[in-house]
Design a protein that fits this description.
- The chain is 66% helix and 9% strand.
- The chain is mainly α.
- Strand 2 and strand 3 form a beta hairpin.
- It starts with 8 loop residues before the first helix and ends with a helix.
């Protein structure tokens, strides 16, 4: 998983940890606003607790993410064209995308020894009727990039990003 050419494995891990933290705390980060009440907060906390219980290392990842905040700020500054491309991909995914869950291998014998990447792909049908396939790794890349963008995008883009995140989280939980 790499959001830019030349990243080291350590930098990729930073982004993966950040993504895991954002997903674990997504209900608190993205679902609550100034009009949310105590019940909304309680529901968001309950959802967050469920997400945290599914990742034993989430506290370690959160601490690592906190230690790398300056790196994330610098990475965010260099995201300009990547941001535009990622938001456009998320918009296309929300309008014309479809998760395909099932045997992605050519034979059933190979399917018996499968990984998550072998059973999920994402397709976007373009206006010219061509189909673009996204592997699980490419879906993860897009998700990570969208998580990094977070604050400096418009409300409409945030809604597109949140929709894409919700679909992605649902599929990931479904396949576990």
């Amino acid at each position: 998983m790499s959001i830019a050419a030349g990243e080291t494995d350590y930098e990729v891990d930073r982004v993966k940890y950040f993504e895991a933290c954002c997903l674990a705390f997504s209900h608190i980060i993205f679902d609550l606003n100034k009009n949310s009440g105590f019940k909304d907060l309680l529901q968001a906390c309950e959802q967050t607790e469920k997400m945290m219980l599914s990742d034993d290392d989430i506290v370690k990842k959160l601490i690592d993410t906190n230690h790398n905040l300056e790196w994330f700020k610098n990475a965010k500054k260099s995201q300009g064209s990547v941001a535009t491309k990622s938001i456009m991909e998320a918009q296309a995914a929300n309008r014309k995308g479809c998760f395909v869950i099932g045997n992605q291998k050519s034979s059933y014998v190979e399917f018996l020894e499968f990984s998550l990447a072998d059973v999920i792909k994402f397709q976007i049908k373009n206006d010219d009727s061509t189909v673009k396939d996204y592997s699980l790794e490419e879906i993860n890349d897009l998700q990570s990039c969208l998580m990094l963008l977070g604050a400096n995008i418009s409300e409409k883009s945030i809604q597109e990003m949140t929709k894409e995140k919700d679909y992605f989280v649902a599929v990931r939980l479904y396949t576990k």
